[in-house]
Amino acid sequence: MAPQPPQQVRRGLLEFARSFVGIVRLLQILLGAGLWVTIAANKYEGSIHFVLFVAVLFWLLTLALYFVTLLDKQDLVPLVGGERWLLSNMVHDIAATVLYLPAIGVMVHKTEKNSFCNLEQYKHYCLYKVYLTATVFTGLCAFAYLLSAVYSIIRKCRGSRPLSDGGGTPTGTLNL
User: What is the spatial distance between Cα 9 and Cα 28, in angstroms, rounded to a whole number?
Assistant: First the structure.
């Protein structure tokens, strides 16, 4: 395959970055980073380790997926690249959604457990606001991955080509 002119490469990068999948992936990266930074910057224990594991794992995987797709190098990824790239993205998004659901439960439980210190008169260090913020980030992350999974499922059912081609169906458009 001959190298593409710089204008075509730049246009391809911009097309993906402005596409629905590109925007949602960037949103997932930002929300995931917000979640794990919120947790890691404060004292945490117990089941919060699971939430942190899920957040960091899927943040790193999503970052890799984003840049591999942005650079149009999915054909170079062994086993899951090429024609399997859309399916791989769909499985990633479904797995993230499924693992973020118990993470939401953990964060809600920890938030409720620390709700006693949500009073102005309480003067000791309290993690209630941290846990509440992390709960919101966890819910938003789960929603972003669910949104991306549903979009991937719709594209897969309609016979779309891989994400790098501008996100279209074989005719070049996707009518939702």
Answer: 24
Q: Note the maximum CA span of the chain.
A: 69
Residues 6+ apart with CB under 8 A from 28: 58, 62, 96, 141, 144, 145, 148
Both tokens assigned to 126? 């309290």
Token pair listed for 59? 């943040």
Residue 152 CB burial class (10 angstroms; 0-12, 13-18, ≥19): buried
Report how far residue 129's alpha carbon sits from residue 143's, in angstroms, rounded to the nearest whole number.
Answer: 21
Backbone angles phi, psi at 12, to 5 degrees: -65, -40
Provide φ and ψ at 79, rounded to 5°.
70, -45
List of residues 6+ apart from 59 with CB closer than 8 A = 29, 32, 33, 36
* pTM > 0.85: yes or no: no
How many Å apart are CA 141 and CA 94, to the nearest integer? 12
Measured in degrees and rounded to the nearest 5, phi and psi for residue 172 equal: 100, -5
> pLDDT tens, 15-47?
878 889 899 999 999 999 999 999 999 988 899
User: Which two three-digit tokens encode residue 107?
Assistant: 């964060």
